[in-house]
Amino acid sequence: MLFFGREFFDLAIVDINIVRHNEFRFINAEFGFVTSFSKMETTIFKIGQPYRLQEGRIAIITNGRARVLINLIEYIFRPNYISLIAPGSIIQIIETSQDFDAHMMAIEHNFLPVSGKEEFFAHFLQRKKNLLLPLTTTEQVQIENFITVMWDVLQEPVFRKEVIQHLLAGLLYNIEYIAKNKGQSESSPLTHQNDIFQRFISLVNTYSKTERNVSFYADKLCLTPRYLNTVIRQASQQTVMDWINQSIILEAKVLLKHSNRLVYQISDELNFPNPSFFSKFFKRMTGMTPQEYQKN
Question: Which residues contact 8 (CB under 8 A, 6 or more apart)?
């Protein structure tokens, strides 16, 4: 019920049947705010279907649990956790409890009013690493206060853009403070193995459309292909090629479901030698052809 790309916001505006209770959301071209996804009752979301996020996201989980893949990595969303998700991320909801609910904001890149917004967003929503933080009771109250004030302002007849922009900037600065002083400072330093794995996954998410050779990723990490394969297998129980193939399939699924491209165009975009090769690869990985997945 969470985290859609631009197509969700466009469809929600023009098709009243996609969202049953519009009173639980505010959406314009620069900023989206959903105060309760469970109460809004949208029909666009499908479990297991990947979506590419065009805008950055802030999500505050208020109830229930969800298993979520963000750029291939699994996260568990629990009550009183807050998540920042980078624009361009591919997100896939694996499962949710029946009582899962959350506040969510979608933020267009230029919406923040702060000076140095490029660096600000690079640190937050545009970075490749996504942030998931548990909140103490005091921090929960602080975050909810931001949410309450922002939602109240959004109920005004005229969109008070500057007010929302500065409240949003304050919320992000507060999240940064929480991350620095509690979340990140308490976490154990990454082991050498896990550091390599995280950097490898970031590279795969960036380059898998065009680069499928183990040597490419090993060179980027200044490692030998054999050592990289050993580390990745130890860290994840999967090989380098397993991760590359999973990333390609996610890209293919997003393009098949959320673009107007034909199969041969998607094959070209994903750097396959021909559509037949792409179709065989897709069926081997998913059990269905690209056309079957697109129509399913």
Answer: 42, 44, 51
